[in-house]
Amino acid sequence: MPPALQDVAFGPALVGLGAAPASKEAAIGAAARLLEDAGCIAPEYTRSMLHREAVTGTFLGHGVAIPHGMGDDRHLIRRDGIAVLQVPGGVDWGAGQMARLIVAIAARGEAHVAILRRLAALMQDRDRLASLAATAEVLEIVEALAGEEARELPQSDEAAADFAHRFEMVVTDPAGLHARPAAAWAEAARQSGLRVRVRHGDEVADGRNLVALLHLGLRAGDRVVISAEGEDDAAGLARLRARLASLAAPAAQAPAPRSARGWTPPGPLAVIGGIAASPGLAIGRLHVMAGSAVEIADETLPLAEGAARLEAALAAARAALHALATTASTRLGAGEAAIFRAQAELLHDDELIVAACRRMVEGHGPASAWQAAVGQRAASLAALDDPVLAGRAADLRDAGRRVLACLDPASAVDGLAALPEGEWILVAPDLPPSEMAGLDPARVVGLATAAGGPAAHTAILARTLGLPALVGGGDALLGLPSGVMAILDGATGCLYPDPPAAALDAAIAWRASSRVRQAVAARAAAAPAVTQDGQRIGIAANVDRPGLVAAALAAGGEGVGLMRTEFLFLDAAAPPDEAAQLEVYRAMIAAVDGRRLVIRALDLGGDKQAPHLGLKREANPFLGVRGARLLLRRPDLLEPQLRAIYRAAMAGGDVAVMFPMVTSVDEIVRLRAACERVRAALGAPVLPVGIMIEVPAAAVMADRLAAQCDFLSIGTNDLTQYTLATDRQNPDLAAAADSLHPAVLRLVAQVVTGAATRGCPVSVCGGMAGDPAGAALLAGLGVTALSMAPPDIAAVKARLCGARVEALRALAARALAAATADEVRALEAGA
């Protein structure tokens, strides 16, 4: 057995030949007995393996299944081991899948990835698998999975053949099948429950694998054949076809800039040209970022430990990317948030993970193995003859860096950490989307990259942020000295380094006149939201980080109505301590400068998971321990956060505390008691305490809950999800998750009425607040304050300022009497 597998029990005694179990459950039991007889597991671990199978299937395909237990039951594993049960006649694994080789895993560190290298190769050789399923030689199976030599088996011709049921379709997205539509295709294929192949000419990809789809290099107009097999494959394929057709509309992207509106220099200047990526004129000093490769120490670990670290790093990186998507949705919009969800999808790529596991099997450490696997995969994407698809290499490297930082924290070098005060134009080989989303607009005024194109995610995010940018400027950019003044014209794609004083003066004057024009356009957003008959509606912004407050206030926000604190936990490899949180809350209070700041306590659970917190895995996390339930069970999370908030408020400021996902009076009573206990111990001021109304139970009990609160804030996203029993992240149900549904509106009305009996104000900080139609209805229902993403403020204020309260109340009354969300929208359209 190779050294990398020496810590895993496996050998002839752990192989059972010629079995004929009557069912999948019997097969799992027989394989588990092999592990139990070898001293690898306690008898109770068999139940854990059966539970895992009920939660998620372990059938890999081509007759191979890998049953293993639940993560929470690893204490039942006495030593890591692998057992193989051979079933020559096959056993039904469900959905028409017949398993002939059952590879049972008992690993405290998910060591089953140690044999992925061999399994991945064997899965491509049907003849070899058939031989192993029929052999009478135990050593043949042992050698196949744990032999000394590494076998790289060729892909069989059969693997490229279409399945029996198939259809053709044409790629319609103007940018081709780039990351976001490809991620949607892969998700749709997985949800179908079928094995899906996508063929373009002679090239075939697994339809469930994002990177494999990207490797096809599909462009607008390309015709592909999509085929599938599995249970009820004809009907399933029809559903998949309908789903893909619904995704076929071109994805909306920020428009490319037009050069005609650029700045004209007063005379000849030294210039470096690139591709216009985002309009605007930036004036500042250059900050040139080096593009040197990160050196990783290749520290070999026992394979089980290395596999566990890789699995944990992948989970943490995916969670951080989903959290970044949530933040980006607030700051940038849903389209840009999809960039980070697509990056998270890249980290589900089986071939990439197998490539990393292969290197670990060969004796490399997890960080080194991951870095090499990502580098090779990204290089193959970058080599594609399509600038849009080749640009996805940057996304893979960006996502890969997050995993690498979890595996080797020393590799997490922030090139912007030492950026001093001032206005800077960043010059870099390229800038990852995740760094783009976190740029401090108070310091970074422009961006110039040597690589990239106008369709790259870097350019899209620059346009969304309103950051002047050029891309594709070449190596000449990287040779510029840091610290010199420069003028960047994003509309023409020109960078003017070290311009003379006359050119600087002309650029400053042009930018000043441009800002005057922009100020006139933004004046309406800066004014309060007052209806034509004098009713004022408070308008605040949803902001998570101190550096974003200034832009939110400039957009018309009158304070911060929702500060999510999850990013402090999801963006870190360990829970932030009290001191780290205190620093952020103090910075937020300073940034809002006397305006109201509502800090929401940690809201984890559901789709927001932090692996480093050791939260228990749940079959249905949206109905599990999340929000207030988690905080009350984890004083180690609640107490330090409350101490940090109250300590920050001791220096002054209008600060309020808000608790998420409260469902009962008992919960808010206990949470208020925790607040008072912390406040009294610190001698801190009394802060308003409120709750989120996000579930129907809380809406129905609003009068009782209001008696315990200083304010209520309705989170319409979750309230809609729970009221309509509709998963808002399920693409097949997205259209049904409409907050303007009369059922949701009736609950909002019930909250307002119930809170009024206690004199408790009601605000809304969900997505409905940022929809002008929704804002009008909320104001008509009696909501007195709204909080939303900064880009939505201007349109909401315009809608409210153009209306009279009586008209809004009449509109809301008609909406409550409507039968469907479509009827409600028709009412608003006719208002």
Query: Globular, elongated, flat, extended or rod-shaped: what is the shape?
Result: globular
DSSP strand tally: 26
Largest sheet: 8 strands, mixed
Which band does the percent of strand residues land in? 15-25%
Mean pLDDT: 81
What does this structure look like?
With 831 residues, this protein is α/β, with parallel strands linked by helices. The chain is built from 32 helices and 26 strands. The strands form 4 sheets. An 8-stranded mixed sheet has the order 10-17-16-12-13-14-15-11. Strand 19, helix 19 and strand 20 form a beta-alpha-beta unit. The longest helix is centred in the middle third of the chain and has 29 residues. The N and C termini lie far apart (75 Å). The relative contact order is 0.07. About 3% of the residues have low confidence.
Provide key terms for this protein.
831 residues; alpha/beta; eight-stranded mixed beta sheet; 26 strands
Brief summary:
The chain is α/β, with parallel strands linked by helices and 831 residues long.
Fold blueprint:
Elements: E1 15-16, H1 24-37, H2 45-55, E2 59-61, E3 64-65, E4 81-92, E5 98-106, H3 116-122, H4 126-134, H5 138-146, E6 165-170, H6 179-192, E7 195-200, E8 203-206, H7 210-215, E9 223-229, H8 233-246, E10 272-273, E11 275-278, E12 281-288, H9 303-331, H10 334-346, H11 350-361, H12 366-382, H13 387-390, H14 392-407, E13 424-428, H15 433-437, E14 444-449, H16 457-465, E15 469-471, H17 475-478, E16 485-489, E17 494-497, H18 501-526, E18 529-530, E19 536-542, H19 549-554, E20 560-564, H20 567-570, H21 578-592, E21 596-600, H22 628-633, H23 635-649, E22 654-659, H24 665-682, E23 689-693, H25 696-700, H26 702-706, E24 711-714, H27 716-723, H28 742-756, E25 762-764, H29 772-781, E26 785-788, H30 793-801, H31 805-816, H32 821-829
Helix pairs in contact: 1-2, 3-11, 6-8, 6-10, 9-10, 9-14, 11-12, 12-14, 18-30, 21-23, 23-24, 29-30, 29-31, 31-32
